[in-house]
Amino acid sequence: MPNSPEHSERPAPAGKVVVTGAGGFLGRHVVRRLAEQGARVVALCGAEHELDRVRSLAAQAEAGDILETTLLNRHVAGADAVIHLAGPPAVRESFTNPVDFSRVHVLGTVAVAEACRRHHVRRLVYVSSAEVYGSLGLEPVSEHTPLRPRSPYGAAKASAETFVQTMVASSDTTAAILRPFSVFGPGGAPGAVVPTILRQALAETRIELARLTPVRDYCYIGDIARAVVLAAECDIAATTIVNLGSGTGTSVRQLAEVALEVVGRRLPIVQSASGDRPQSADVDQLVADVAMAESVLGWRPQVTLYEGLAHTVEHLKGSQ
Questions:
Q1: Residues 152, 282, 192, 241: is their CA dihedral positive or negative?
Q2: Is there a smaller number of Cβ atoms within 10 Å at the N or the C end of the chain?
Q3: Number of domains in the chain
Q4: Residue 228, exposed/middle/buried by CB under 10 A (0-12, 13-18, 19+)?
Q5: Residue 286 DSSP SS3
Q6: What is the DSSP letter of 10?
Q7: Looking at the DSSP assignment, which residues form a beta bridge with residue 182?
Q8: For 107-128, how does the pLDDT look when each residue is reduced to its tens digit (9 = 90+)?
């Protein structure tokens, strides 16, 4: 469902905005949007090779460990807002490397929240994940739903949220905690379900996926970046938690069917024996209640699933 025209939305925050994880999938889209709206962006990346993705858009760009307090304090000082995106997003990898995931997502978030508190930053935007909800058999899921994460990634995000709420409660900083659902678009991780489906839809004789029945709420990366920027400037008096999704559930099979429609092919869609997480940790259905996003941010997705897949296909074709 289309939103109101973009020019009617709030502008990006005035002054200096620090973005951690700036070279990542969502980070580079957020940096671009902030820059286009006139913000002075400081882009903090986790690795040197990520700097080329944002250097031309940011007033400053630097790579380093999110736990380097000297780095954080130097850049956070004088910031109007900090948008915290740093940390690996892969649920599958969190099962094999939970210690590193916890270090970056939990301790890294503590370090960022402390820097915001120390330097009296007006707004901290923490981008969490719908993985904090787990599998509840409820539809749609509201921000008041109890958290029952079923992956180390989800557990780390839930813990980080608690630290953010606790640490800013007695400070000058207000926090917006965002819980994106299934984000897709150009530049997404190659192993994610949407790129996996599209690569097969474009070049294979069939689409083979681990599971076809899970229902997710897919939202285009550009819409999510727009919501993140809005959260940096929206009017909130205390920590506010907001789901980011379309409010519509789509099964993996249905997603593959739409992808085939986009590329103009007809292929069989089959299920393989292996999954991306232990069977006991499967999440069967996760769809967002988006009422809070509309009331707090004035935000609704503007890009349909079909349109978003078409944009992603064009990107894949251009990168071949």
A1: negative
A2: C
A3: 1
A4: buried
A5: strand
A6: P
A7: 218
A8: 999 999 999 999 999 999 999 9
> Which residue reads 């991306």 in tokens?
276
Provide the residue range defining the domain that includes 133.
Answer: 12-187+219-245
The DSSP secondary-structure symbol of 132 reads: G
Instruction: Write out the H or E segment, with its range, that includes residue 20.
Output: strand 16-20
Q: What is the pTM of this model?
A: 0.92
Structure tokens at 38: 């006139």
**305 within some domain:** no
C-alpha torsion sign, points 221, 302, 15, 176: negative
Q: Tell whether 87 is covered by a domain.
A: yes
Token match 């109890």: residue? 146
Q: 3-state class of 41 per DSSP? A: strand
d(CA 227, CA 3) in angstroms, rounded, equals 12
Residue 66 lies in a domain: yes
Q: What sign for the dihedral angle of Cα 170, 229, 223, 49?
A: negative
Query: 17 forms bridges with which residues in the sheet?
Result: 41, 81
Residue 147 lies in a domain: yes
Domain of residue 21, CATH code: 3.40.50.720
Query: Phi and psi dihedrals of 82, rounded to 5?
Result: -125, 125
| Residue range 145-204, pLDDT digits in tens | 999 999 999 999 999 999 999 999 989 999 999 999 999 999 998 889 999 999 999 999
